């Protein structure tokens, strides 16, 4: 899994996503000794130290070398660098969805033995409730998770839409288009699961509704802190 670089003209070049499709990824992975390929979102593996560019690649899918495919020399931004995941012949397309840390954390998806994330766009409390039910909790809420830009994980799942009463996240509507450009890809979907009624907050003792002491309720009991 990674950014695709091509050696030609005595130098390494960056392969741009212009016209880069599944057939091209298949040739890349075959050349590297893998059976199958999936195209990932462009640019997720960051910048490259190389200044050359290979563009407009157009493979049929049966070539053994990427340079056997028609291509040109051009230029593109690092956000347009081609990215792929190569898959061994004995690896299935099955995937698992789980929470990073027992009852709270990032929502993780594991596929092809690679940990990925769920796009936070559209992820809401109904989705959080379902994955918490799936993990044995009565309730759940969504929350944003902090992620460093240097941490790179593919977006395996996006556009999750649950009603909130499903037994499993697998029963919800979702997309596994790995080329999804998630606008929140530095903040993957996160949840906190619990068995009570959850948490609420209020301001108390101020002269205006917008000021006062912060009180927090957990499972219906109010206090100054948790």
Automatic annotation (TrEMBL):
Recorded GO CC terms: membrane
Provenance organism: Mytilus edulis
InterPro entries according to UniProt: SRCR, SRCR-like_dom_sf
Cross-referenced SMART domains: SR (SM00202)
Pfam families in UniProt: SRCR
Membrane topology: Single-pass membrane protein
PROSITE patterns: SRCR_2
Disulfide bonds, paired cysteine numbers: 59-69, 132-193, 162-172
Domain SRCR: 1-87, 95-194, 201-226
Protein name, UniProt field: SRCR domain-containing protein
Cell inner membrane as UniProt keyword: no
Keywords per UniProt: Disulfide bond, Glycoprotein, Membrane, Repeat, Signal, Transmembrane, Transmembrane helix
Protein localization: Membrane
